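User: Can you help me understand a structure? I only have the sequence.
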Amino acid sequence: DVVKEIKDALKVDTVKGQIASIGIVGSAAISNSTHCLAHRDADENDLEMIRKILKVKVDTGSVNMANPYIRSGIACNDHGMMIGDSSGGPEVSNADEALGYLGRSE
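Assistant: Let's start by predicting it. Here is the structure, written out as tokens:
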């Protein structure tokens, strides 16, 4: 099975799931080592799954004028993020807070 192949090839724990009924979870959320921003339609079960698997704080949002596919408009790491220039101010602020950067000093 594909999950076992991925686990064996990458030597990582692997879980099959969905976020907001989307099977391509890599398009529906982005995380750093402490926080995650997920598809705006992710429900509490989705968010709990993310919390449990990644052991991060999680919130929902959108990018690039209400696009729910988070990865289409954000790249991030533990030090900061780049967000699509079509993202509105509230989207930028929400992503900044959801990914744990807002109010943090480095």
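Now, to help you interpret it: Strands lie at 29-31, 35-39, 57-61, 74-76, 81-83. Residues 96 and 102 are 5 Å apart (CA to CA). Let me know which part you'd like to focus on.
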